[in-house]
Input
Amino acid sequence: MGKTNSALVTRRALLGAFAATTVTAAPVYSKAFGFLKGAGDVRRLKMYSGRTGEKIDMIYWIEGEYIKESLKEVNYFMRDWRQNSAINIDTRTIDIMSASHNLMGVSEPYTLLSGYRSPKTNNMLRSRSRGVAKNSLHMKGQAADLRLASRSVGQISRAAASCSAGGVGRYSSSNFVHMDCGDVRTWGR
Output
């Protein structure tokens, strides 16, 4: 077995070991950056897409390293389902989503309403709603619209805003929170 394969096997072995303990083990916060204190040394992402019926529950970061295979799955999961197109989702946005999820102490997955949007999809949505930005960060893979059944828009937005790492929009009437890795700002009610 070559170096690449042995490293992959080691990584998979680590994933299995950490996956078995992630839910019960207390995360270590000492090495985490300020806004990611909720993410810990093992970062996990759990989401469900009502549009595609797909689910994702994975560890995507261990001890300072992103797992490339996991990020590829996140990119595909958060694709523009209308155009079946995907781009790389900014890891800063993924980190904000993970940290916010951990800060709320929930085990249920986020419901993903919108991740990446192609310009065509963004223009179509913009023609139907004033709330869709012309230069939306969704088109750069830097934003996600999310909800949790067990938490209010206010609770989700407070968790995301406490990361002080990007934009947080509250859309109470539509029951979702926008998270992005752009400038730190908040809006909505």
Q: What stands out?
A: DSSP finds five helices and eight strands in the chain. The beta strands are 42-49, 55-62, 65-66, 110-114, 143-147, 167-171, 176-180, 185-188. The chain has a mean pLDDT of 84.
